[in-house]
Amino acid sequence: MKQITSVSCPTCNKDVIWNKESKWRPFCSERCKLIDLGEWASESHRIPGQELPSPMEPDDDKH
Ligand SMILES: [Zn+2]
């Protein structure tokens, strides 16, 4: 007898079958996982003012 375990996706509450093929479990998809990680990151792992200006100066010194 095979038992099917399912959980609800923490992001969208969709049923997710808990098996090897559900590689994003407990999320239903990669997207939901990223959304959840993103929320977690923005709540407790926010890096303030991390804006690195990318220098777009032409290489005039080089030939
Ligand atoms: Zn989901």
Nutshell version of this structure?
With 63 residues, the chain is an alpha+beta fold.
Explain how this protein is built.
The protein has 63 residues and is α+β, with helices and mostly antiparallel strands. The protein has a domain at 6-41: Erythroid Transcription Factor GATA-1, subunit A (Erythroid Transcription Factor GATA-1, Chain A, 2-Layer Sandwich). The protein contains 1 helix and 2 strands, in the order E-E-H. A two-stranded antiparallel sheet has the order 1-2. The N and C termini lie far apart (74 Å). The model has no long low-confidence stretch (mean pLDDT 81). Bound molecules: zinc ion. Zinc ion (ZN) binds at residues 9, 11-12, 14, 27-29, 32.
Primary descriptors:
single chain, 63 residues, alpha+beta, Erythroid Transcription Factor GATA-1, Chain A, two-stranded antiparallel sheet, 1 helix, 2 strands, 24% helix, 10% strand, elongated, binds zinc ion
Layout of secondary structure:
Blueprint: E1 6-8, E2 15-17, H1 30-44
Antiparallel strand pairs: 1-2
The site of zinc ion (ZN) has 8 residues, from loops.
Low-pLDDT residue intervals, each spanning 5 or more residues: none
By DSSP (H or I, 4+ residues per run), the number of helices equals 1
CATH topology of the domain at 6-41: Erythroid Transcription Factor GATA-1, Chain A
Strand order of the largest sheet: 1-2
Q: What ligands can be seen in this structure?
A: zinc ion
* Proportion of helical residues: 10-25%
Count of DSSP strands: 2
Strand percent estimate:
5-15%
**What's the architecture of the domain at 6-41 in CATH terms?**
2-Layer Sandwich
Structural class: alpha+beta
Q: Which CATH class of the domain at 6-41 is shown?
A: Alpha Beta
Categorize the overall geometry.
Answer: elongated
* Ends distance: 74 Å
Biggest pleated-sheet summary:
2 strands, antiparallel
- Rg is 21 Å
Q: Report the order of strands and helices.
A: EEH
| Overall pLDDT | 81
State the assembly state of the protein chains.
Answer: single chain
CATH superfamily of the domain at 6-41: Erythroid Transcription Factor GATA-1, subunit A
